[in-house]
TrEMBL record:
Gene Ontology MF terms in the entry: 1-acylglycerol-3-phosphate O-acyltransferase activity
Matches recorded under InterPro entries: Plipid/glycerol_acylTrfase
Region (Disordered): 1-20
Keyword Endoplasmic reticulum set for record: no
Family matches, as SUPFAM superfamilies: Glycerol-3-phosphate (1)-acyltransferase
All copies of domain Phospholipid/glycerol acyltransferase, residue ranges: 57-176
PANTHER family: 1-ACYL-SN-GLYCEROL-3-PHOSPHATE ACYLTRANSFERASE (PTHR10434)
Protein name per Swiss-Prot or TrEMBL: 1-acyl-sn-glycerol-3-phosphate acyltransferase
Ranges of Low complexity composition bias in the record: 1-19
GO aspect biological process, one term: phosphatidic acid biosynthetic process
GO cellular component terms attached to this protein's record: plasma membrane
Keyword tags: Acyltransferase, Transferase
Signal peptide positions (record): none
Length: 259
């Protein structure tokens, strides 16, 4: 989930790949990586029965570690897609091919990250996936929490749910930050993680996607459900990088809807 920060003038538009159903790489990866990861890390998986096995679904999760985007597909009882930085798919040589193949195998779809139009284009890709009846995973906080607290949710997830009518399955991840802390190059084998799937949320009673109030209230419901599953301390703030320069500081201080 991309952060809704003000776009720099030189920020390029998002370059996205057309949504597709799980291909050979994903089928092979799911067949190999899932049982291997479960054997090595022995994740505790709770609430799998809460996940609809067909139709569009949005997994909305807390975000503690790089491996969150591996933990959710490994634990979920159905294929899951998520957006990943396009640079993971564009490297040269064998290492570039290996990176591209790995991310395709875990259901990643490349997108050029950014704010403004780039963020809207990313939401559009996810909308198309949902319209195909697929499942997508997003992080309402926008980026990883470096201090373990749960930050306020941005409204993009709620917008997507209200626009498409897809149910939102809240997810609480516990321990992924210990298995692979921010900055670590490789995960440790000494820790176990817990993945908790909550009861699907129907957000339609909040109102239409065009209503800012509906998006905010729906987002708060999502975050409350995630908090109940993860048990994290609440930060009561948005998780965003410190603003650089006076203009950016003013922009962050002004009230605006974070998507």
């Amino acid at each position: 989930m991309t952060s809704e920060q003000s776009a720099e003038p030189e920020t390029p538009p998002a370059e996205t790949q057309q949504p597709r159903h799980a291909g050979f790489a994903y089928s092979l990866g799911r067949g190999l990586i899932t049982p291997l990861a479960r054997t090595i890390y022995r994740p505790r998986i709770e609430g799998r029965e809460n996940v609809p096995l067909d139709g569009p679904v949005i997994f909305a999760s807390n975000h503690l570690s790089f491996i969150d985007s591996i933990a959710i597909p490994v634990a979920a009882p159905r294929p899951v897609h998520f957006l990943a930085k396009s640079s993971y798919f564009e490297g040269p040589g064998f290492s570039g091919w290996l990176s591209k193949t790995f991310f395709e195998s875990i259901g990643a779809i490349p997108v050029r990250r950014g704010a403004g139009q780039a963020a809207l284009d990313a939401l559009d890709v996810q909308r198309k996936l949902l319209e195909e009846g697929l499942a997508v995973a997003l992080y309402p906080e926008g980026t990883r929490s470096t201090d373990g607290r749960l930050y306020k949710g941005r409204t993009g997830v709620a917008f997507l749910a209200l626009q498409t009518g897809a149910p939102v399955v809240p997810v609480g991840l516990i321990g992924t930050d210990k298995v692979m802390p921010v900055g670590a190059k490789m995960p440790t084998l000494k820790e176990r993680i817990t993945v908790r799937f909550g009861t699907p949320l129907d957000l339609s009673p909040h109102g239409p996607a065009t209503s800012g109030r509906a998006r905010r209230q729906a987002t708060d419901e999502i975050m409350a459900a995630i908090h109940a599953l993860s048990g994290q301390e609440l930060a009561d703030a948005y998780n965003e990088a410190p603003a650089q320069g006076t203009i950016e500081k003013i922009k962050q201080a002004l009230p605006h809807e974070r998507r």
